[in-house]
Amino acid sequence: MHLLHSLCRLPAPAGNEAALTQFVLNYVRQQQGTWRYQPQIIADERFQDCILLVFGQPRTAVFAHLDSIGFTVRYGRQLVRIGGPQAEAGYRLVGKDSQGEVDCTLTVDEETGELGYAFHRDIDRGTELTFYCDFRETATTVQSCYLDNRLGVWNALRLCETLEHGIVAFSCWEEHGGGSVAYLARYIYETYGVRQALISDITWVTEGVHAGQGCAISLRDSLIPRRAYVDRIRAIAASSGIPYQLEVEGSGGSDAKELQHAAAPWDWCFVGAPEDHVHTPNELVVKHDIESMLALYQVLLREL
């Protein structure tokens, strides 16, 4: 879990993923010599802060978004949400502006619901604030801010250790409207002819998806993937013996929304571990579900 801890500690709110991008690039360059197969690394100004790792003769692309939720300092000690963070008075927020490090407290106006901060000075407008990382690990669980989606990034990086054929795409902006997957998908489709994808992201513990019972294969959220493709994934998962759950939701979304709307025939499916306390500093995932997620991705990338 050392890698996951390092990923969770790095601030990368949507639109400002550069530090995490550099961390992932450094990690790949340091570790790829120990991987079974070597990827082509594509990371340049054409793709802003996104990264593509291309292995062998790819048939499937895995998308994992780098960014997280957070807050932007507005005027008069007001805060504006980045994405959809839960806002509870007293949450500890950190960041950095022109005057130095910031370690402040989230405030919520009881009458208006307006978000703000308590700090000994004014913070520069436009400063991004993120949840303070208190990473807690037990024998069976991990708990921290930003497991969504640092855990999806962790899964993708661990997948690279044994991946022979496939593309791993690290995207940006997913938590605040998306945008990067559109150009990544176009490049991947036009360059490699790949048009099937898995979304390495984190879903929710609900009344139908339970912690500790394996990762979730999503049959739908606010969007509906092509049933024939999802059925292939279900068949592979069933024959693998790896524990998994089926998810059916009517809301929510992921990087898949840009694949669904792409001007190319992309198939996609969301496969990820469920977490509790979503979009708070206390996101909680069971290690058994993390193990299930990685094992299932390894099988799917071999057989799809």
Automatic annotation (TrEMBL):
<protein>
    <submittedName>
        <fullName>Aminopeptidase</fullName>
    </submittedName>
</protein>
<dbReference type="InterPro" id="IPR051464">
    <property type="entry name" value="Peptidase_M42_aminopept"/>
</dbReference>
<comment type="similarity">
    <text>Belongs to the peptidase M42 family.</text>
</comment>
<dbReference type="InterPro" id="IPR023367">
    <property type="entry name" value="Peptidase_M42_dom2"/>
</dbReference>
<dbReference type="GO" id="GO:0004177">
    <property type="term" value="F:aminopeptidase activity"/>
</dbReference>
<keyword id="KW-0645">Protease</keyword>
<dbReference type="Pfam" id="PF05343">
    <property type="entry name" value="Peptidase_M42"/>
</dbReference>
<keyword id="KW-0479">Metal-binding</keyword>
<keyword id="KW-0031">Aminopeptidase</keyword>
<dbReference type="InterPro" id="IPR008007">
    <property type="entry name" value="Peptidase_M42"/>
</dbReference>
<keyword id="KW-0378">Hydrolase</keyword>
